[in-house]
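S.,

Sequence below, as promised.
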Amino acid sequence: MDKVNVLVVSRLDLKEGYLEEIAAVDPRISVKDGTKQFIAELRKQGKKEPFIDLLENFASLASSQRSSNEQEDLNTLLTQAEVMFGMVLLP
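The prediction came back faster than expected:
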């Protein structure tokens, strides 16, 4: 099996170190956090639902878990992902 790209798009209710725990399942798993890109896309579309503020606040609190994909946009991350994990719907 080749490398499997996992995209996480929600930090709600996820404990510290969750990215590392997902990646630890198998060395072929590559995990990227797309939460910030997801929030930016929702904001760009003019969405103002309360869950977006909650997600943004939680993402800011969990900022110690940095991902190396900060410069990539959501569409790029989505095209690379074989698996997506999140507790919210994508636009």
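The longest helix spans residues 50-61.

Coffee later?
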